[in-house]
Amino acid sequence: MTVVLEEGPGPDPAVDYLDRPPPRARRGRRAPWWLWLAAWLVLVPVAVPMAFLVADVLESSSAAWDVLFSTRTLQLIVRSLVFTAAVTATAALIGVSAAWITFRIELWGRRVWTVLVMLPLVIPSYVIALTLISFFGGRGLFAELTGAGLPSISGFWGAWLALTLSTYPYVFLITRTALRRVDPAYEEAARGLGASSWRAFRTVVLPQLRPSIAAGSLLVALYTLSDFGAVSLMRFDSFTRVIYAQYQGRLDRTPAAVLSVVLVVIALVVLWAEQRSRGRAAYFSRRPTRPMRRVQVSRRVRVGAYAFLGSVVAIGLVLPLGTLLLWWLRGVARGDIIDMRWGAVLGSLSGSTAAALIAMAAAIPVAKYVEYLTPAPYIEDILTEPFALDENGVAPLGEPRRRAPTDDSLVRRLHEGVHEAALGEHVRFEAAAPGTPVNPAPTLRLDREIERFAGTEG
Length: 458
Fold this sequence. Notes:
two-stranded antiparallel sheet, mainly alpha, MetI-like fold, single chain, 458 residues, 19 helices
């Protein structure tokens, strides 16, 4: 039975609630003093070097302005932004597609494919770049094995390929985790309203994945801006490579300092853009009551999925590992002594472990402090509180109540009006026996104008 809400006598308490501004107490909570102190102390190791860097730039203000507005600097900014956007877009496309295929489509060896798609994350980006350089080209490994040379890979396209293969697992892991939290009832409701599979994914599932995709893309963008090894091997002039060259090749460190400040500003702009891409939306959901069902696809689609995953694994995992293995076998065949530098191995393990522990310890107080500062979603009060229907099918929102006749006008209006114009989501109301608790649904905190529009639609 489809539920339709009719207006009862008197003012509507739900609409009146939305018209009121959020209570002052829910706009944020005061954090304990020790948490405030710990969160701000984390910023000291970051703020002190930046302060010295800015001070160096300000001391040579005239030379700094000349470097900042030079043609080469402007070209470097544009080139780095285009490069970062290209890597981020490609990594997001590969990561989201692979996450959807391995999670939703019924494939043979689905768990094995999931692990294989993740594994390029453990290979450093400069190692991937080095193996790509060795494999391609007229004298590369492919030419030695087959006699047919491939084009050399370097510059923009070489760095783009190496960093895309190194960073798409970030988007893959975060998106696949988010897919586990998506309630399948909403997609099924959209399909029941006549939406195609693609439209249901685009209007129901994808909006719920948007924060996760944005978070993964943010990691990719910041990694691309900070990478030095891959771009240096590919001889692509990004900010990190140019800053290193300026620092090593000049007695005057002003150009390197100016470019470093510009790089930090670009990173801050990327962070701001990621926040703006979310808008004011924030998603709140509880664990789905049942898992999402696998999709049975045609043989052509299944072959395409295997081909896509196989290509990603072949280029991102098999090619680097195969190249390294071939180098090792050639060394053994020549009688070379394989000298394992255990000191370097131990240093890498101890350094990475210490860095992980320090990062975790620094992130916890900052995350808790931000949690105190984040306003609670006022719309959650009326949309996610459990309630029960009485014998007349009335949801006790207060006096006067709204009754629930049995016609489908609300679903039609939601589908044609709210869904297309504002919400971008399908909403399903199900009949329930009297006294049956209604499970809280994932809620999207929206702009207040959209909420008022939704109220006018019932």
